Amino acid sequence: MVCGSTQGIGNAIAAELALTGANVILFARNEERLKKAISELDTSKGQTHNYLIADFLNPEEVVNAVDQYLEDGKIIHILVNNTGGPPQGTVMDSNAEDFLAGFNAHIVNNQNLVKRIVPGMKDAGYGRIINVISISVKTPIAGLGVSNTIRGAVASWAKTLANELGPFGITVNNILPGYTKTGRLDTLFRKKAEDAGLSHEEFEKQAAEKIPARRLAEPAELGYAAAFLASPSAGYINGINFPVDGGITPAL
């Protein structure tokens, strides 16, 4: 099950998991985009793909969709928690409602999903929980006050969960994307370019020059990382923050 899987990093992860032979459940709010995304997934190994619909700003919708899917005993072996980040803005420009919305979209939904999916993983003796967060877990990003706060909370939640679930053959890891070519980054860069009096192209070029790899990431590169963490080969990797950032994170 890949959340937020109709575009960007979530879509790339779903595509890569399908290529490895997984039966993928797409989970997002827009049915038309879900239909398009599912039609593009690989089926060469006989896979059967499905989708669920819910708005992740409404945890009750998410719970109802998953409960309905699981009611006949289905087991999900891999869960990718991924949803759009909170709006940009400083901590001082944000209000309590912004933090509550972010907490519900990320922590509450993640918790509700694992409570429902982990029993099946335990029965199977195999489980992978992968959370797509941000390099802000290691180094907060200016102008993303609510996002920095909520992403850090997800990281601590995941580490605690990894310790609890490790004995059952279930791993919990976080992928920390750096600057990746997504719609969210494009919006963020356009706003920063405007504030700096630069063109979008010039701002993106300057941003890439600060990355040791000297380029932005392709979403597919996050998919490769997720597919590895989801595989049996990563069975002894548990409770880590895995930056996929071209080397830009200054922290170890």
Q: Under CATH, the topology is which?
A: Rossmann fold
Strand percentage: 5-15%
Distance between the termini: 31 Å
Instruction: Evaluate the radius of gyration.
Output: 18 Å
Query: Helix amount, in percent?
Result: 40-55%
String of helices and strands: EHEHEHEHEHEHHHE
Shape: globular
Strand pairing plus helix content: what structural class? alpha/beta
Mean pLDDT: 96
Please give the CATH class: Alpha Beta
Give a quick rundown of the structure.
The chain has 252 residues and is α/β, with parallel strands linked by helices. It has eight helices and seven strands. The protein has one domain (2-181, 217-244): 3-Layer(aba) Sandwich (Rossmann fold), CATH 3.40.50.720.
Task: Present the secondary structure layout.
Blueprint: E1 2-3, H1 8-19, E2 25-28, H2 31-39, E3 50-53, H3 59-70, E4 78-81, H4 96-124, E5 127-132, H5 145-165, E6 170-177, H6 183-196, H7 200-209, H8 219-230, E7 241-244
Parallel strand pairs: 1-2, 2-3, 4-5, 5-6, 6-7
Task: Characterise the protein shown here.
Strand 4, helix 4 and strand 5 form a beta-alpha-beta unit. The longest helix has 29 residues. The protein contains eight helices and seven strands, in the order E-H-E-H-E-H-E-H-E-H-E-H-H-H-E. Helix content is 47%, strand content 13%. It is an alpha/beta fold. The model has no long low-confidence stretch (mean pLDDT 96).
